[in-house]
Amino acid sequence: MIVGPVAITIYVVWWFINLVDGWVKPLIPNSYLPDNFLPFNVPGVGLVFGIVGLMLIGALAANLFGRTIVSYGVILLDRMPVVRGVYRLLKQIFTTVFSKQGTSFKRVGLIEFPRKGLYVIVFVSGDPPGEIKDKLDNDELMTVFMPNAPNPTTGFVMFMPAKDVILLDMAIDDGAKLVISAGLVAPKQSKLKQLAEQAKKKQATPTVVPPKEEEPAA
What we know:
Layout: H1 3-24, H2 45-62, H3 64-78, H4 81-97, E1 107-112, E2 119-126, H5 130-136, E3 141-147, E4 155-161, E5 166-168, H6 172-180, H7 188-204
Antiparallel strand pairs: 1-2, 1-5, 2-3, 3-4
């Protein structure tokens, strides 16, 4: 139970370091690469240079000169026929994901799918867009996202009657863990429910108090 997660974590970190090194190292001048001066390869050099580069770009974009350059770059991307569509799509995705104005999922729910009697986890996004609600002529509609397991970044967006969605008290993070783990990681409230049921049983069981022994008369 301990060795498995630790080994997988180390493997993922090592894979990520090698991936970044493969991208960044070819961009670094040979005079700055320690591999050219040492008899062995130094992992993580590309990652360090990448982090430093991102920090410099962030510092540059924070001042007036940097914002001017970024704005010109955005205008250039917005005028390129093919790149323009990709840029706008990615911008909208990042704006939605990192927005702090409550545009994330609202609730976790269940719907019957793919047939009656089978249920899947869905995430409630909110109300459908106005045009869809008007065309369907139904005021009690919900926009839900049904993720695929174990990769919740893909799935189906559905507009369905609110009466067909069973809302859960489960947190969004717990719902995501349940999908990613293919049902192996149960939400914490299931344990709390078991504890609550045990506490109710104890309360229902009458407590027998032994009678006090009478003290002998003096």
